[in-house]
Amino acid sequence: MTTEALLHDLFQAALTAVTAETRLPAALPQPPKGRTVVIGAGKAAAAMAKTVEDHWPGPLTGLVVTRYDHDLPTERIEVVQASHPVPDAAGQEAARRIVDMVQGLAADDLVLCLISGGGSALLALPAPGITLEDKRAVAKALLKSGADIGEMNCVRKHLSAVKGGRLAAMAHPARVVSLLVSDVPGDDPSVIASGPTVPDPTSFADARAILAKYNITPPPAVAAFLEAAEDETPKPGDPRLSGAETTIIATPQDALEAAAALARDRGYTPVILGDAIEGEAREVAKVHAGIARQVARHGQPAAVPAVILSGGETTVTVRGQGRGGRNVEFLLALAVALDGQPGIWAAAFDTDGIDGTEDNAGAILRPDTLTRAEEMGLDAKAFLADNDGYSFFKALGDLVVTGPTRTNVNDFRVIVIDRT
Q1: What's the pTM?
Q2: MOFRL domain spans which residues (predicted)?
């Protein structure tokens, strides 16, 4: 068993632990007296829909929207594909159709809502007076700003006709049961996919403050809508959401614990640093490098051989012109910080299989990464300054391409410290 193989196996163990087929069947509710309408959005939506079809004992209809190339064949639940992370017309039309499906239902009917990360962009129905282009402009600005997922989704909720609990309110008085795959630090249901079926504790004022914090000047229609603040999202205690039920079926912690169990079986001492780590990717990398060095030099907080695991969602404030998501940014900063220290390997992946907007899930960092880069004339610090982790690891042949995994519990980071 090579260290590189171990890194891949740990990632696969993490993914298997949070697939729809693994987590969803046990969480399904009993069929209702009336109709069952299945709706949903997110990168795991197609896999969740197929799992519902495979395990549901009665009739059902529905529609879910997922990212392009994340679909699966289904028979009773239609799967629509749309754009992520910037919304498009396909997501807008899918959201309109979902709204039509949940209106006019009775108390004996069931709305089964399948929600996973990515749903904020995929379920894209702008609030009245706001265009899709307005939403796209704000989304692009937020993605480059360094805003965390909670901040981005607060703004998204207040520019949407369906997010922030509005979708569940439309379905009232039907029973609404939401099954969630969490991709957000802290597993807050109101943040996951911008919480279309749960009460929203944030406000228009919060959304305005976030745009101001990151010096984002929104389109005039967005600025006017946020300032007017006329139709606030449903809040905790709203009677239209009183019967809504929400269950988180898969979390980042589930993935980390599965990887830790495998590491232990392979003779490594696992250390889980946290499932909700946030911050600039390059700064998070410096902290991870310091912990890895402490293990290598002093056997703390675990003796060598050890595996350090962490999850959450880092951010990248884009200042350069390069290609790369937050996981390759993390790894490139980690390489610079470790400076070729022997015996330390690492990998970082987005569990949906797409790191940012590129075609890779992440990459592998080896003890000799910097040496090989120098031999090829690649300056790691220059690539990092240009936010170009993708090109750096591609040149070395160390990108990892999995294709869509059809699940999403956000970042998965692993550092292996071997005996030297």
Answers
A1: 0.93
A2: 307-411
Q: Give the residue from 87, 52, 110 showing the smallest Cα distance to 249.
A: 52
Q: Which CATH architecture has domain 19-125+160-199+234-250?
A: 3-Layer(aba) Sandwich (3.40)
| Look-up of token digits 């919480």 | 195
347 three-class SS: strand
Task: Collect the ranges in the chain with pLDDT lower than 70.
Answer: none
> How far does CA 208 lie from the centroid of its chain?
24
Contact 55, 49 (CB under 8 A): no
Token pair belonging to 222: 């967005």
As a whole number of angstroms, the distance between CA 412 and CA 349 comes to 5
Task: Give the integer Cα–Cα distance in Å for 414 and 170.
Answer: 42
The phi-psi region of residue 65 (left if phi > 0; otherwise alpha if psi is between -120 and 50; otherwise beta) is beta
Asked if 269 contacts 303 with a C-beta cutoff of 8 angstroms, the reply is yes
Would you say how long the chain is, in residues? 420
Q: How many C-beta atoms surround the C-beta of residue 36 within 10 A?
A: 22
Token pair of 4, please? 């590189």
CA distances, 184 to each of 29, 50, 82, 116, 280 (Å):
24, 24, 21, 10, 15
Answer whether 416's CB lies under 8 Å from 345's CB: yes
Q: Which CATH architecture has domain 3-13+253-417?
A: 3-Layer(aba) Sandwich (3.40)
Please answer whether residues 308 and 292 qualify as being in contact, where contact means their C-beta atoms are separated by less than 8 angstroms. Answer: yes
Identify the helix (H) or strand (E) that includes residue 142.
helix 132-145
Q: Which residues contact 239 (CB under 8 A, 6 or more apart)?
A: none
Predicted pLDDT of residue 357: 82
Q: What residue type is 295 in one-letter code?
A: V
Whole-number Å distance between alpha carbons of 377 and 6: 29
Q: Where are the domains of the chain?
A: 3-13+253-417, 19-125+160-199+234-250
Angle between helices 204-213 and 220-228 (to 10 degrees): 140
The one-letter code for the residue type at 400 is V
Rounded to the nearest 10 degrees, the angle between the axes of helix 326-338 and helix 281-298 is 40
